[in-house]
Amino acid sequence: MRNLKKGLTGTALAIVLTPPAATWAQSAGSGVQEEGAQAVPDEIVVTAQKREQRLIDVPSAVTAVSGDALTQRNLTRIEQFAAFTPGISFSEGLTGPQLTVRGLNASGQGATTAILVDDVPLTSSSSYQQSTTPNFDTYDLERIEVLRGPQGTLYGASALGGLIKYVTKAPNLAHFEGSAQLELNHVDKGQTGGSVRAAVNLPVVQDSVAIRVSGLYERLPGFIDNPLGNASDVNSGERYGVRAGLLWQASPEFSVRLSGIWQRDDRDAPASIDLVGAALTPATPPANATSIAYGGELQRNLRLGEPIKRRSQVYSATLNYDADFASITSITSLAKMNFQRRKVLTHYNAAPGVTFGDVLSGAYGQPVDIRSNDFTTVRRINQEIRLASAPGSGPIDYLAGLFYTREKSSITQLFDVTSVTTPPVILTVPVPGGGLSVPARYREVAGFAQLTWHPLPNVDVTGGARYSRNRQRSQTTRFAGFVSQSFVDVTDQPSKTKEEKVTWSGAISWHPAERVTVYARAATGYRPGGPNLALATQPPGYRTSYGPDTTVNYELGAKGELFDRRLSFDVSVFTVDWTNIQIPTSVVDPDTGVPNNFTDNGGKARSRGVEYAMRLAASPQLSLFVNGAYTDANLRLAVPGIGGARGDRLPYVPTFTNTAGFDYRVPIGGEATTFVGADWTYVGSRNSDFIVGGLAAPQTGHQRLPSYHTVNLQGGVEFGQHRLALYVTNVGNARGLYYYLSGDGAGGTGNGIVQQPRTFGVRFSSNF
Questions:
Q1: What is the chain's percent helix, strand, coil content, to nearest 5?
Q2: Could you say which DSSP state residue 288 is in?
């Protein structure tokens, strides 16, 4: 309560002063831009409802962060811009970033937040594929749109809580332009890193054909040491990628746009550290369980490495024909994502206080390490075609479309038992480590439609629905070894499911003034069910399939711009009911004693709260901003399989978050301007995952993680098209935890993912 009062006090002060520059936009959305609405030169236009609209006209909770704002504040990754978006909770498991919108998280594997690039869906529809969440670099983007609340009508499966859309810049047909950015940074008690980014736009045929290409290389500094492995800064890495686009305006009515993205992220290890934990007593952790072990030193003590590699590729072709009465759009796309991870399991509990290393050392007659090698691939082909009425063409605007996707994915997990010698030797006697492979297929067809009626010049009524049908198939091969408890490879029978689902949405919006919208919205979302592994012998309580889980969202909101656009605001109040939640669970085969993991449905949850964002141009030199959310997300029905009791908070959802800051600019002569800015973020206490069982004994018991504050500073000078900035992130060297596990550390310690320590940097950018 004390921290909540502090946060609310800070928010009140910030609102009195209030928020950022015109490049920042917060709001939500309706159907089409109302007839007669006037756009202004720096108007934020979004495509949240699959057509271009002014942000302030959309009758739902939408935040748009422009590319200029992303660049100026150096928000290059999901975890950075998430802090500037109300209603988003960021956590980072051992497989990568995880985003939760409006509190919808229950320790399951499948994603509840959809990720798109333009209109290309990337999120896997399988519950096994959350590790494929991409973390694209944000340089040279048009904007990022965050849609809060279920988006099942227009975007379909897996937009259970909301979605994030990266909107890329289209090639400019008229002008040559380019930009470049150089950066150097250093992490406190860690390494020095840096990056090079550049973009160029080239009209090939004036006003007809143009290409745009951007690229990046980034050296990611490490800051975690491994004394046991005699290594320092073990979590360093590299990121590089290319984004390219071609636009052909064949005629005033017809255009073709081709786009491609390729990005690679390599880390020698995640930002994983040893915590005090509760390996001996996971159900009754000590008071300091979430404290950093070894006197606060950032260490991860392992004899083996835990490298992570991630590849993302997105290719699309968008054809648009603009007829007098409507536009026809076709989007064909291919998305490919690959993820590789090595995870050390030596210190996982086989029972409280007894690790797998302890157990297998006896079986192999020597001290051993155990590691898993995980390989995940997803390949999605998508086709969408839609028809949208021309804006302002009549009292009713319509949007209708068809969607098809075919997804092939696979998960392969191979286990090694190794000696503790240097170099380690893989042991195969008495048995190898074993493993499993699970190829899967997902196919979906869907039809959707949305109508917006304008009964009055300042009133819009919107309604829509989507029908989806999918088929899924998976098959498991278990490789001989201690994991499968078998001396031979075994291929299970195929597992198949099919399902149909209808989602809907409705909204009414009122425009009491030209640049003000008040709205009410109700909408549903869902996440597909699917097959579990088909076991040759099914133990009691095991389920061969699981059903979809669904959400129903109700919200009231208001947004707009006042006082000649000097003040903007966006406030929404919401409640979301989540039913038939997909949960990870496990049953033990009574004959073999082997645990069998699977996904089941159970429990209900409710999330309700308030989201807000405001900005104020206090003077031509000073702008201030604030955004945040209060979210009460908890179980409404006990889920014993994961140790969840009625009233328990949902994992990694802070009750209160708040970000506030300012930007100040002063001309100093000629084309030169000096600037300074700061922002402060508060993340309230959160609970970790519910009980994680299965292969290992329970590793966590829904532990409360402490709140934390982060302050960032920047300042510099602009001269014409050039900008030199100095910055410090995480000024107070906060140790915010993104993840917690009660065991998994050497010597009976726990494990966690920590935010990057204090970082000093210099950045030079230029436009030409």
A1: 5, 55, 35
A2: T
Q: Are 257 and 318 in contact (CB under 8 A)?
A: yes
Confirm if 332 and 317 have CB atoms less than 8 A apart: yes
How far, in Å, CA of 286 to CA of 703, rounded?
Answer: 10
Q: How many CA atoms lie within 13 A of 318 on its CB side?
A: 21
* pTM metric for this prediction: 0.90
Tokens coding 335:
């998305």
Q: Is 420 helix (H, G, I), strand (E, B) or coil?
A: coil
CA atoms of 699 and 690, how far apart (whole Å): 9
345 with 371: CB under 8 angstroms? yes
Residue position matching structure tokens 């919107």: 462
The residue written with tokens 């009055």 in the block is 456
Q: Are 345 and 387 in contact (CB under 8 A)?
A: no
Residue 225 gets the label, from left (phi > 0), alpha (psi -120 to 50) or beta, of beta
pLDDT in tens, 246-288: 999 999 999 999 999 999 999 999 999 999 999 888 878 999 9
For residue 749, give both structure tokens. Answer: 């310690």
* R_g of the chain, CA atoms, integer Å: 26
DSSP string, 394-417: SSEEEEEEEEEEEEEEEEEEEEEE
Q: Which two tokens stand for residue 422?
A: 């240097």
Which region, left, alpha or beta, applies to residue 706 given φ > 0 means left and ψ of -120 to 50 means alpha? beta
CA distance 518 to 6: 30
Contact 35, 392 (CB under 8 A): yes
Largest CA distance in the chain: 83
φ/ψ of 257, rounded to 5, equals: -125, 125
CB 492 within 8 A of CB 535: yes
Are 759 and 734 spatial neighbours (Cβ–Cβ below 8 Å)?
Answer: no
Give the tens place of pLDDT for each residue, 50-80.
988 899 999 999 999 888 888 888 888 888 8
The alpha helices in 313-409, defined as continuous H runs, are 356-364
> Distance between terminal CA atoms of the chain?
51
How far apart are alpha carbons 572 and 613 in whole angstroms? Answer: 9
DSSP 680-717: EEEE--EE--S---TTSS-----PEEPPEEEEEEEEEE
